[in-house]
Amino acid sequence: MKHCIPFILLALFCACSVQAKRPNILFIIADDQSPFDFQAYDPSSPLDAPAIGKLAKEGMTFDQAYHMGSMSGAVCSPSRKMIMTGRTVWHLQGTGGKRNKKKEEKSGITNPIENCLPAIFNKAGYDTMRTCKNGNSHGAANAQFTVRHDATKRGGTKETGSHWHGQQVMNYLNDREKAKDKDPFFIYFGFSHPHDVRDGTPELLKKYGAVNHRDKKSLPPANPKAPKLPLNWLPKHPFHHGHPGLRDEVSVSGVWERRDEVTIRNEIGRQLACAENIDHQVARVLKKLKAMGELENTYVFYTADHGMAIGRHGLQGKQNLYEHTWRVPFFAKGPGIKPGARALGNVYLLDVMATFCDLAGIKPPATCEGISFKPVLMGKKDTVRDVLYGVYCGGTKPGMRSVRKGDWKLIKYDVLDGKVRETQLFNLKDNPHEFLEQNHEVKVTAQSGAKPKPNQRNLAEDPAHAGKLKEMEALLLSEMKRLNDPHRLWDQETK
């Protein structure tokens, strides 16, 4: 028996060593990408993205992942700040929400840099690296990464496009391999695409039947290879969404104010050309991690800062709360995640801080308001919350608000100094595309190819759903109060 003791001790030592090995985290984030670009969310999508598709097959797809919204026209900025701080939208500093300064001082909210994502992982002994676009983010937090290569790259060449961001990660991994660095790493792998101007590489533009159109006076050439119109395409949104002259809606090169079939199909082609190039870079990095023997101990996440319209509902930009824009793509792969798994999630992007800390065995800061969705990743839960809240008031105040619970979703608009006050109620199980009355018009369906059913429309004026409308409006107000939303809509109590 005594001869067995050394072997038992050795086994225990080895077991403890394996247990002590902390996981790596690779967080990949695209700039302006609807979940419906991917076949995991829209099987009819023509996007060829095998690397990201493999993430879905070998990991988990989240069906209900959202950014919380924005008080700015640059939706990407608050979205990325929420990722970096784990704070809800109205608790980001400088957002105009109700603030308790004494509570903030006590919790450390007034010193957010110590509590930002890279600083936390630096303190925990992780190597941290970042590449992403410049600006529209949390500059002070971004500077905390020990290795940082930021530049806005939206061109169609290796030096000017997504390949550049991919190369920064490849260089970092090569240096790590050369130095035989065994510390765990946290890599923030961001892209400047597929954000406009959507200058894809020539070969990928050709593949998707698109051109980089620059002439405001003419339409781009029609091409049968261009992607089809989205089923919920409209030539014009039925009412003003509340942000006149916004760049993303009226000044995007190649689109401008046009929403005709040829223009939108060309622009979707440009979007997908940029998206496929992102997939190429993801493939390079994952292949390198596998060759280094690091991939098996790495959690890989893929998402975007928010979605995009590009013709859906007659809109072009990111300043709306329809599912194509409020939702984000979200895939995760890593130790303990069942291959091919799918979950609702009901997560916000701001939840990634709590989740990454949970996966790494790090205590999140007291300032973090996110919820760890590790139990979802491990198959123990399907959701982390019951209710989802969304806001956009980058234009005229109070702006737009949305709330979702189960299959039901409410959107309210109070914009242009009261000139536009609209309410939309959808059952997303019955009407996943959020078809409006205008989507039923023959001249629209003839182009979109949609065949909406009679019940697939805005139900806010339907007497049969008056009770559900009242319930969802009460729920929205409750969430606005809970999250310290400083505004109230025209038909809400002000107390």
3D structure, described in words:
The protein is of the alpha/beta class and 495 residues long. 31% of the residues lie in helices and 17% in strands. The strands form two sheets. The protein has an eight-stranded mixed sheet, sandwiched between helices. Helix 6 links the parallel strand 4 and strand 5. The protein is globular, with a radius of gyration of 23 Å.
The CATH homologous superfamily is named: Alkaline Phosphatase, subunit A
Q: Spell the H/E element sequence.
A: HEHEEHHHEHEHEHHHEHEEHHEEEEHH
* Overall body shape: globular
Using the CA coordinates, give the radius of gyration: 23 Å
Question: Quick summary of this structure?
Answer:
The chain is an alpha/beta fold.
Name the features.
single chain; 495 residues; alpha/beta; Alkaline Phosphatase, subunit A; five-stranded mixed sheet; 15 helices; 13 strands; 31% helix; 17% strand; globular
Topology:
Blueprint: H1 5-20, E1 24-31, H2 50-58, E2 60-66, E3 69-70, H3 76-85, H4 101-107, H5 117-123, E4 127-132, H6 139-142, E5 147-150, H7 162-178, E6 185-194, H8 202-207, H9 247-250, H10 261-291, E7 298-304, H11 323-326, E8 330-333, E9 341-348, H12 352-360, H13 374-377, E10 387-392, E11 399-405, E12 408-415, E13 420-427, H14 442-448, H15 466-482
Parallel strand pairs: 1-6, 1-7, 2-9, 3-10, 4-5, 4-6
Antiparallel strand pairs: 2-8, 7-8, 10-11, 11-12, 12-13
Helix pairs in contact: 7-10
